[in-house]
């Protein structure tokens, strides 16, 4: 184990070795499964994944035994308890406690085995509720969090700090990336537990099929959100692992946002719903705007490719093909 950033060889951008062992923690989730698909397509042959029933990442001894057995050279930490605005505000203890335990166990075990490159994934909700828009990486820890997801955000902030501390104390060139709202194949389409985009796909598609006249969404429809297709996110992750080495987390997004009412209209159009939309203002709006400044990532040579409408169309197609066997 090395003992500090000053002692290590300077980082050089280079392709990762395609035949080395590469652990994707959370490889069945929305992000992890997209990262896995992308790594396979890029020719990686040493991919390692464990379902939560095979390996409970909250079990510290099991995590250490897994690392001792598999000795991964590279790691992406995409395992987390995630959920939409209602799940986050109803079960804050679960989001705080489970995520802290998963992160601390995986990062400690990865330090013990001097994992060469590691990417920790967070979320744009780590930034203060009233951060200037678009949100720059420097806004971290400059103000109060949005209360509907503060517990999840605090866990993710602790993860970023742990990565920075590991860089300082052990000199390992590990990094963090903060994606904006993600969507795509493999998402959770539950009406109560999911994020807005899969919930709306399901609600409008059900309404289009049943011929319902009205759809009722949550909140006022005025909050602004940025949506990134998860295949773009997966490509950005590999790009960062091969090109970026710095203590600051890196924002990953498209650089543009829409209102919830606008995304609802677009989804209604894509699924062919012709009725009316109403808004249930007893449900929370959450933070008024969440748009990431992606200039740091652009400076590293990566920008998103999948447009929102094209991404929505392929996600709706995937949803229809998998509607019977989804997590609902
Ligand atoms: P957030 O980005 O952390 O606020 O999380 P969400 O993706 O859960 O919600 C984004 C916005 O969409 C909020 O303003 C919600 O009120 C709104 N929204 C409208 N309808 C729904 C829905 O059916 N499910 C969810 N999760 N959000 C909805």
Query: What small molecules are bound in this structure?
Result: guanosine-5'-diphosphate
CATH architecture identity of the domain at 21-183 and 227-254 and 291-306: 3-Layer(aba) Sandwich
Major β-sheet strand ordering? 2-1-3-4-5-10
Helix content: 40-55%
Mean pLDDT: 95
Number of discrete helical segments: 10
Note the main sheet.
6 strands, parallel
Give the CATH class of the domain at 21-183 and 227-254 and 291-306. Alpha Beta
Count of extended strands: 13
CATH superfamily of the domain at 21-183 and 227-254 and 291-306: NAD(P)-binding Rossmann-like Domain
CATH level-3 fold name of the domain at 21-183 and 227-254 and 291-306: Rossmann fold
Morphology: globular
Structural class: alpha/beta
Keyphrases for this structure?
single chain; about 325 residues; alpha/beta; Rossmann fold; three-stranded mixed sheet; 10 helices; about 15% strand; binds guanosine-5'-diphosphate
